[in-house]
Structure formats: C-alpha cells, structure tokens
C-alpha cells in the first residue's frame, strides 16, 4: 500500500505538509487532510532576500509563493506556518552547488535539498515537534512491506516520476515520508483540475523549472558572480588550443552548445566537452564517441533500505527524467562500482547515479570517476571528486 493507510486502519497521524506554493504540494496536503490525518502546512523560506514575485515559471520561495501556500492552507482548512531555513539552505545547497562547480563537477541541487533540507532539517524539526510524517508533492511511491519496513518505488505514472531526486532518502527518512500523488495515474492537467475542484487558486499556476535559487535561469552568470571570471583555454584531445572561455565552471561534461570554438574540427563534426580541469582552468573538447563511458565509481552511497551485498544486476538512472540503463553494480570498500551493459554518454562527475530493482529504488551515490570506452580516454587520469 502506498504511503500511510487511511484511518481507522491505522491511527490518525500528525502530518507536516511542505507547501511550496505550487499546485502539487497543495493537492498533496489536501489529500492527506481528506484521508483523515491531522495536517499542518508549512512553507520553507529558503531565500534570505526573497523577491516579491516569481519570474514566470522560474524560481520559487518568493513572497508570492508564501502567500499562495497560505491561501491554499486556508482553503484546505489546516494551520499554516512559515519556517525560516534560509541559512541552512545557503550552507547545504547553494554553497555546495558553487563549490562543486568550482571543482569541475556537475551537482544536482534538488537531490541535495531533498537530503539536507526537506528530509533532514525539516523532518528532524517535525519529529521533535511531535509530527509523525512529512508530506510533499513529489511523484513517488512508498510501499510498506509485511514486516513493516518501507520501500521507495517509482510513481505509478512514469512520465511524472521523481524518485530519482528522492534516491538520497534512507530507511529512517522513508519511515516518515508521505507522497500522496505517487500512485495517481493522472495527467498534470487532471491534477490541476482537482485543485480547481477543491477551490485552490494555484490550479493554474505555472510549475517552477530549473534551479530554484537561480530565478533568471542563467546558471553561468550566477556562477560567474559567485566565483569571478577566469579566462582559460579550450583545447582538443591533442592539447591544441581551439578556443578560450571565461571560467571552466561554466561547462559540464557532454556539453555541445555555447562552446564558441574558433577552430573547427578537421572532420567538420560537432565537438563536446570531454573533461574539465579546474587546476589549470582548461576545458577539453572532442568528438561524441569520446564521451562513451563503460563504467563508473561513485562515492557517498545512500541506501533506501538494506545495502546490497555482492554484485547484482540493476537498472540505473543518471539524470532526472533520464532513461533507465542496464548495469551490474556492487559495493567495494564503501564505494559503488557500476559497469554498463552498453556504453553511455554524457556522464559527469558530481552527478548522482540511482540504482533500481524493477520499480524499487535501491539507493544512490555521487559519481566520482568514469572509465571511457576509447583507449586514449582510459590512459588519461580519471576525473575525481
């Protein structure tokens, strides 16, 4: 059964509903309340200097979002509070994001926010105040097994599945997680229609996209302001300079657009970012086939239950809404070693690899090194965390 059963099958739960001001979290809170739980809404103030209004569908945590969340709570008929977690968010998510790019890696701030903010800082505070669970609008499913343990699974609707960004949750956090939208086989239009039937004004509000703390969507500009410009060379696989850049942090492995190369490739084919070296501020580009990765090593694994033992076959997801790829994986010396059945392109250190056993999320880890399929790439020192 998904999430917590409706009373009276089990006791009425005290639920803290994280309400971003968007339609998904509002409908999730409404469903939890409708199921008979004692629900309290909370909006997380994550910006030290929130803007008054959103920039279209970008960003979140504005004054407008807080007001939208409060209005939704009023319609649902639940208490509502605003909790200031701006300093914790700045330290655990924003500063980490900048540091990862400065080191030549490509982080996923949504995973870090779920791990450190929504299911660490928020959950810990909720439990301390006597709440039983934290409810969010994520599309994922929690299944309770006969022995009482809980598993994280993909959402019933694969098109909306968000289990990838929840792969950092451990067994303790899953025991107090509630995702009322996870087993819903409906389109987003139907979720909006439900919100409208419930009288929620956020029914037609645009979804937020991109990175929430970069409201204008200009990640490179944000990093330049944070790290400063630093001109460096763009080189090809032979080491010959083919262009310049204003900061290696502005690139990610597999990037094709925005390279502004002054010298075209001999074969006339597009070139892609192959490596980023923050030490000498150099970006290496080359052909698409040089991006083929046959295996990777990942660090800081987090398991959604019992850690796997010995090598086994799984599927892996390497980016949000990315395709599943078949892999063999095992844990050795505290690191996750993953080998792909077929080469995969565009894998960047800093990204998360999430393992699945069918629809069940096994766990996740941060990619540290990759093994390239081409002989030359294998001879090069691996990119490390």
From TrEMBL:
Keyword entries, A-Z: ATP-binding, Cytoplasm, Disulfide bond, Nucleotide-binding, RNA-binding, Transferase, tRNA processing, tRNA-binding
Residues in tRNA-specific 2-thiouridylase MnmA-like C-terminal domain copies: 294-367
InterPro entries on file: MnmA-like, MnmA-like_C, MnmA-like_central, MnmA-like_central_sf, Rossmann-like_a/b/a_fold
Gene3D superfamilies: Adenine nucleotide alpha hydrolases-like domains, HUPs, Translation factors
Annotated organism of origin: Actinacidiphila bryophytorum
Active site residues per record: 113 (nucleophile), 212 (cysteine persulfide intermediate)
Major localization listed first in the record, in broad terms: cytoplasm
Protein name as annotated: tRNA-specific 2-thiouridylase MnmA
